Amino acid sequence: VLVVGCGNSELSEQLYDVGYHQLTNIDISETVVSHMNQRNAERRPDLTFQQLDATQTGFESGSFQAALDKGTLDAMASEEDGALAGRMLAEVGRVLAVGGRYVCVTLAQEHVIKLAVEHFAQGWAVRIHCLNGQQGEESDSSFALPVFVLVCTKFRQAPPFALLELCQGEDGAPTRLASVPELLSAVKERQAYNLMLHKLKGGTDASSTPSLTLCHAATGRPRYTLTVQDSLPSAKLPRSNHFAIFI
């Protein structure tokens, strides 16, 4: 496993502790690499970190079965109008063996996910997992956006059609999408849904009426519209009666 742009994250250490010992960690920062090697010298002597540029690693082609990216694509996509991230993705594709996977944990900002999906859409299988709701309903986290995991699988020969899928959660059944714009639109819908949930948890403007359209799973056609009406600040209502939902 090649861990791209490892930084000082504990991810590789946690992977090592549960049995993934063949990890190659790279980062462009000499300070980070030195710190991480020192931090793991005693407890994890086989866990090593190398100072390398992710856009030109020098590794042999096809030498890794997986490439793991936690936030590196997000950080690089804004540099050089995406050209730097494009070179990193090309290098990842080169060092992965046939059947190898690029696994990227991302917030899926529009310019980031568009760059990655368009890069791998030709000749790779692209699947996006939406991990919203994984922290449980009682979480008081102020973080509104869902986390996505992009998984791109390298084929020996390009398939005759694009393989684009979206999954809800880690093990949700995949939904096949016909085109890159359709996949990106589905990602944006889930982000909008989570933003709305976050807004409702914290209260809404009493003068606004947020609404949500629920669609039939098989046909995609609208079935119900839920409209949320917040209580007026001056209203004398029971403590539990903060808002009403009209269907």
UniProtKB/TrEMBL annotation:
GO terms for molecular function: methyltransferase activity. InterPro entries: Lys/N-term_MeTrsfase_sf, Methyltransf_25, SAM-dependent_MTases_sf. Residues 1-100 form the Methyltransferase domain. One of its GO terms (biological process) is methylation. Keywords: Methyltransferase, Multifunctional enzyme, Transferase. The keyword Transferase applies. Gene3D superfamilies: Vaccinia Virus protein VP39. The keyword DNA repair does not apply. Belongs to the methyltransferase superfamily. This is eEF1A lysine and N-terminal methyltransferase. It comes from Cirrhinus mrigala.
